[in-house]
């Protein structure tokens, strides 16, 4: 009978005790804890010990109290080491924004402070952590006091094996680095779009990306851990409403101009009211300390209105609205899930921890697609304008001279605008190719194999040969012909930078080339001169002559080096020579002759 009573008593005493083991890497601590709410916010640890009977058993893995600045939450838990060795664990408080956290070790009568306003200078983790050490067969009771008078109070306690925790932390910070890197690329990409197109909507989108990235870096704990001192952190918290309102304000302006809401006076007036209300209300909320109560409601109303505007534009067959609507839908779902999580209603992070980061990146991709579609639409408008111009000239030349003259004038203006767009498109193609070359160079820097590095250099030069053509087309008004001398000089200059030698290059360029012929000649020149640099001059010294001239009704391209030549009877599987033959015969519709008796002389002849 005594044994039964002792067993029951032991069970009651350790009902809330978590048994620890070195072989278990992760524990959810909250279900093994008890909770007490201190509405006075005045109780000390000595007072709390007298209220053990008032602690209530908790069975939840996450506690959400919303915006709760008026009380402290006390959490009591007991950890027991059932092994014959010391156990070292990490207690993670999985919310970087809680302002004040205190851990009380009863056995040592010790208090350890953490939280947004008490960050340990030696901490390199995004979330607050406490290191716990329990001796063999020891049972230790801890109290945790948490309060948050600025941000949402969400309590999630995890007990980790030390190695497992830091492995998780490294993966988490790596994913965040990838996310912020993607947002930085989107920022730069859209900023350049604004510089080249002067479309004000993309300036507002850049500001939105900047604001949302800054806000999110604070939300996940990166800002105050790596970039901001404790003194500055107080100001960031005090004016947190500005960092929330800024991206929302920029987002509303982006929608206004990208979808041309000005064409709907009533809807535009309502949106303008929101744009006035946001900065005013932000200032009022800061001054009255009421921002926490109304911020989410105001932001949610604005998001809903932006979605309504986008849906209305979609019904009006605004093609851009379909893309924007998809982006709004993703962001709205993410924001809604965040609000549910902040209120403790539904913890989306349990099932999908990176819902916010994923939604923001998807939104950026969708807006990039919208831009491409917008450019394609402008190109189609240009083609339609050309067709209309031709039709007008053919059908109404005689009987409607005055009307045709007026229409032609308007259409020529449109063509000029579309021509500017085409030049801009050439510039972007050149930029995209340069981006590809930069990526190849970055990859080649990681490769130690010389042959593979040579392949990377060859690929870069081929891309550059095409990129320089688009660069010239962007700089000149007439896109039908290309200055062959400038183009060839750019290609050769790029090759000379790639290969260290003292080869003398001479040009005799007498004509310009059509755009479609220039790209083939540039690739041929790139391949032949590359071969000369690589194989013709073992001593890195020699001469290459490049001639381009018109004879009768033919164009002659002649490239001659005074190198060691090669044996034409030996089969060659060179991709470069295969490419030269293909371009000369299939694209230029010409003939190619190769003489290797004294160096290598390649002559290509095709009709004008």
Structure in a nutshell:
By secondary structure, this protein is α+β, with helices and mostly antiparallel strands.
What can you tell me about this protein's structure?
The strands form 5 sheets. Strands 1, 3, 4, 6, 8, 9 and 11 form a 7-stranded mixed beta sheet that branches. This protein starts with a helix and ends with a strand. It is 56% helix and 18% strand. The protein has helices at residues 2-13, 45-49, 162-197, 200-219, 222-227, 230-238, 240-258, 265-288, 291-315, 319-342, 355-395, 401-445, 450-475, 484-498, 515-536, 575-587; strands at residues 17-20, 26-28, 33-38, 56-57, 63-64, 72-81, 87-93, 100-105, 110-114, 129-134, 139-147, 154-155, 157-161, 481-482, 502-509, 513-514, 541-551, 554-561, 591-595, 600-607. It has 3 domains: 15-167, Immunoglobulin-like; 176-365; 480-608, Heat Shock Protein 90. Strand 19 (591-595) and strand 20 (600-607) form a beta hairpin. It has 16 helices and 20 strands.
**Backbone shape:** flat
* Number of beta strands: 20
Overall structural domain count: 3
The description of the largest β-sheet is: 7 strands, mixed
Strand percentage lies at: 15-25%
Helix content: 55-70%
Radius of gyration: 35 Å
Q: Provide the structure class.
A: alpha+beta
Overall pLDDT metric: 79
Calculate the terminal CA-CA distance, rounded to whole Å.
Answer: 112 Å
Total number of helices: 16
Q: What are the segments in which pLDDT stays under 50 over at least 5 consecutive residues?
A: 1-15
